[in-house]
Amino acid sequence: MASRRVKIAPSILAADFSRLGEVVRETEAAGADYIHVDVMDGRFVPNLTIGPPVVAAIRSHTSLPLDVHVMTVEPERLVGDLVRAGGDIITVHWEAAAHLRRTVHLIKELGARAGVAINPATPAAMLVKALPDLDRVICLTVNPGYAGQSLIPSVLPKVRQLRSLIDHGGCAAELEVDGGLRVDNAASLVQHGGDVLVAGAAAYAEGKSVAERIAALRAAIDGASVA
Ligand code: ZN
After folding, report:
1. How far is the CA of 45 from the centre of ligand 1 (A)?
2. Ligand 1: distance of its center to the CA of 167 in Å?
3. Ligand 1 center from residue 208 Cα (angstroms)
4. Residue from 33, 38, 41, 135 carrying the catalytic annotation
5. Per-residue pLDDT tens over the stretch 194-214
6. C-alpha 71 – ligand 1 centre gap (Å)
7. Whole-prediction pTM value?
8. Is 178 a catalytic residue?
9. Sheet holding 89-93, edge to edge
């Protein structure tokens, strides 16, 4: 059995936007721990998604913490609006933040928790200096941009490396794994050290309710044996 409580963060990007408020309420009722919100600018990643007004709309439908993953160039320009819209955790990309330390401190000064995300090609070691300041680390297990991609297995050793850096660095950051989660790989992500699993299609694909999908993920997570 997993010895730590692993959390589930459904990514609203994979949901039906035409009934966003309803889906957010269903997701909270289904036992999700966070609502993960993917903000994309069409520059840092090819896709263009949502910004602060939609974050505010989501905020009005849930009391769950909003876990905002900022995939934009110059993220420092957006973090204030995202916190004011109701973001609780604001995570920016290492690859996009020219002044990472300054941006992390800005997020904290605004009253939110701060995180840094790294793409599949970015080594874990790049985060060593930043770790003591962080509340969250996101390890991308797909190249960011679109929901519904398959997990890149060669990134899994990096999840374990990040787990070790966090634990041995006396850092309290939660390690979130983002991309390609399925019921049949959830246990492996827990065993590699994930604290929070982002669920896109795994929460919102058609054919089953979000409650059924989160229950299946929870069962897979709870059944994971952790050394
Ligand atoms: Zn994300």
Report:
1. 12
2. 23
3. 22
4. 38
5. 999 999 999 999 999 999 999
6. 8
7. 0.96
8. yes
9. 7-10, 196-199, 174-178, 136-140, 113-118, 89-93, 66-71, 35-40
